[in-house]
Design a protein that fits this description.
The structure is a single chain. The protein has 73 residues and is mostly helical. 44% of the residues lie in helices and 5% in strands. The chain has a two-stranded antiparallel ribbon with strand order 1-2. Helix 1 crosses helix 3. The longest helix has 16 residues. The N and C termini lie far apart (34 Å). InterPro entries: DUF433, Homeodomain-like_sf, WH-like_DNA-bd_sf. This is DUF433 domain-containing protein. It holds the Pfam family DUF433.
Length: 73
Amino acid sequence: MTYQHYISIDPEIRFGRPCLTGTRIAVADVLGWLGGGQSVEEIIEDFPELSREQIQACLLYAADRERHLRIAG
């Protein structure tokens, strides 16, 4: 799975924050819900338009960003 099929950045949607394609749900929203203790099933129950694959794509996106993070110094 590649997250690029599920996540897009559009300056007209949520001020250009990475969002799940076709929604206004930001990757940061999903990560916050997971970090706050919600399960994938609970998120899908609250947002039935989301799929397990979209939520997994958010995690892959975050992991990829973390891998490429560099601290200047």
